[in-house]
Amino acid sequence: MSLLLTGIAELTTNDPERRDGHTDPGDALLGIVRDAALVVSAAGEVEWVGPAAKAPAADDRRDLGGRAVIPGFVDSHTHLVFAGDRSAEFAARMTGTPYDGGGIAVSVAATRAASDDDLRALVASRVAEMRAQGTTTVEIKSGYGLTLDDELRSLRVARELTPHTTFLGAHVVPGEYATRRAAYVDLVTGPMLDAVVADGPTALAESIDVFCEPHSAHAFDGDEARTVLEAGRAAGLSLRVHGNQLGHGPGVRLACELGARSVDHCTFLDDADVEALAAARGTTVATLLPGVEFSTRSPYPDARALIDAGVDVALASDCNPGTCYSSSIPFAIALAVREMGMTPAEALHAATAVSARSLGLDRRVAPGQPAELAVIDAPSHLHLAYRAGVPIVRALDV
Question: How many alpha carbons fall within 13 Å on the CB side of residue 123?
């Protein structure tokens, strides 16, 4: 049955066709329609969007009581397949212990020891938690297995919850390979990658990722990262990169050079990095993860400077057990507005339209698009940052 949604005080469409006539830059960016309605088809697609006064008939009708509706959040960077607890590590960082990537080994040990059913239940619970906060699309990485069997198992579990899975065998070098780094890179780019794409690209993973971070003894330098990414590209996977998180390094420019869909973190950038990202606009998105800076006491990226330079900026949670155990995109939006110089409209656009673009998706509220929607218990998207920490947004079941 088709469904007419009415009583929408403010509808964010992310549709450039609806920018005309807006005097507020935020309204124009978001394609705002006020006093709006929309029709969802029986197939779950948006069928009609516009002013409530012009709404067509539908089989059923639901009044949202003056709430705001937005595209569902697209969380394009998560590490949800893990077991174990690292809260003590967080507490240590709050008293001055720096983060260097070493704690990942704790999650690797716990994840390897967990059963398939345990991992399946943990990931399903985390995805449900995200949906309760307005996230309707999620990317999930492997990276806490770091053996052939455990990486494949992680991807299979993730694949049950989302089609947007990323092979991150190159998360860190596991302890058993600490003195044989080249052998581990060979494993990632050989038997692991071969198994991931054995049934064709996208069967288990649509992307490959690497933690390119020379400032961590556990992660990968620029040459190692290039080897991983070029192998993944040759195997038909799209590219994603963890880059420039702990200090200045080659990650951002390598991602832009190789045409990665996204380079994530971007905490430490120089002028050449920003220029590379601006030149790669339309291909490579800079995905910022402010929950990590909050959880590690690191400096926040300068989103304002990136946007002003013409860079495509996305926001994601980086939900993971070590550096940001938060699944909340509204929290990331509030941090982006408070700490990174983004306007509320830019932050919402970054967490929906631009984050979707980094996954090769189109996340507009427009005819023919999936009805991936979220509803805010408030009349405007401004309340996402204004009421930080309050659970006012949830995925809308239609």
Answer: 29
Q: Are residues 43 and 131 in the same domain?
A: no
SS (H, E, C) 221-285: CHHHHHHHHHHHHHCCCEEEEEECCCCCCCHHHHHHHHCCCEEEECCCCCHHHHHHHHHCCCCCE
Query: What's CA 105's distance to the chain center, in Å?
Result: 23
Look at residue 98 and give its three-state secondary structure: coil
Task: Let me know whether 90 and 31 are in one domain.
Answer: no
Q: Using alpha carbons only, give the angle 170, 245, 225 rounded to the nearest 5 degrees.
A: 30
What gap in Å lies between CA 372 and CA 326, rounded to an integer? Answer: 22
The answer to whether residues 391 and 320 belong to one domain is no
CA distance 145 to 96: 29
pLDDT in tens, 200-247: 989 999 999 999 999 999 999 999 999 999 999 999 999 999 999 999
Burial 143-164 (b: 16+ CB within 10 A, else e): bbbbebebbbbbbbbbbebbeb
Number of folded domains that form the chain: 2
d(Cα 9, Cα 264) in Å, to the nearest integer?
34
Residue 306 structural domain? 73-357
Q: What is the pLDDT of residues 106-158, one digit of tens each?
A: 999 999 999 999 999 999 999 999 999 999 999 999 999 999 999 999 999 99
Q: What is the CATH number of the domain that holds 304?
A: 3.20.20.140
Q: What CATH number is associated with residue 371?
A: 2.30.40.10
What are φ and ψ of residue 245, in 5° steps? -85, -45
- DSSP per residue, 161-226: T-S-EEEEEESS--GGGTT-HHHHHHHIIIIIHHHHTTT-TTSS-SEEEEEE-TT-SSSB-HHHHH
List residues bridging with 165 in a β-sheet: 140
Place of tokens 């961590």: 216
Cα–Cα distance measured from residue 208 to residue 196, given in angstroms and rounded to the nearest whole number: 10
Parallel, antiparallel or unpaired: strands 46-51 and 32-40: antiparallel
Give the list of residues 6+ apart from residue 293 with CB closer than 8 angstroms, or none: 267, 299, 300, 301, 335, 339
Q: 44 with 138, same domain? A: no
